[in-house]
Amino acid sequence: MAGFGGGNMQNLMRQAQKMQEEMQKTAEMLNDWEIVGTSAGEAVVVYMNAKKIINGIELDESVVDPTDVEMLEDLIMAAINDGYSKADKVYEEKMGKYGNMGGLGGML
């Protein structure tokens, strides 16, 4: 019965290291990836990165009604949720291929 030869194991470890490096670069890129979530026809805009860190919020004055704060809260939540949904898609697209580390599972 043939086992792992030294060369095969070294090659496997090199591939695993390369995949880890690619995954790290991709994860760092997600910090810089701008996601824009909107609601109320872009009257509320939320800026975040693909890791769901909110970097800014813009409100059109048409949605700022001091007598209806609850509506503004709902619009902000809707814009954040829109951004989160978009961030999830970007994350899955960019990081999904590393889900099980190319079949290496718990070896790393």
Q: Assign a percent range to the helix content.
A: 40-55%
In terms of quaternary structure, what is this? single chain
Number of strands: 3
Q: CATH topology, anyone?
A: Ybab, Chain: A
Poorly predicted spans: none
So what's the overall shape? rod-shaped
First-residue to last-residue Cα separation: 25 Å
Description:
By secondary structure, this protein is an alpha+beta fold. It has one domain: Nucleoid-associated protein YbaB-like domain (Ybab, Chain: A), CATH 3.30.1310. Helix content is 50%, strand content 17%. It contains two helices and three strands, in the order αβββα. A three-stranded antiparallel beta sheet has the order 1-2-3. The protein starts with 5 loop residues before the first helix and ends in a 13-residue tail after the last helix. The model has no long low-confidence stretch (mean pLDDT 87).
Index terms:
single chain, 108 residues, alpha+beta, Ybab, Chain: A, three-stranded antiparallel β-sheet, 2 helices, 17% strand, rod-shaped
Short characterization:
With 108 residues, the protein is α+β, with helices and mostly antiparallel strands.
Summarize the topology.
Elements: H1 6-32, E1 34-39, E2 44-49, E3 54-59, H2 69-95
Helix pairs in contact: 1-2
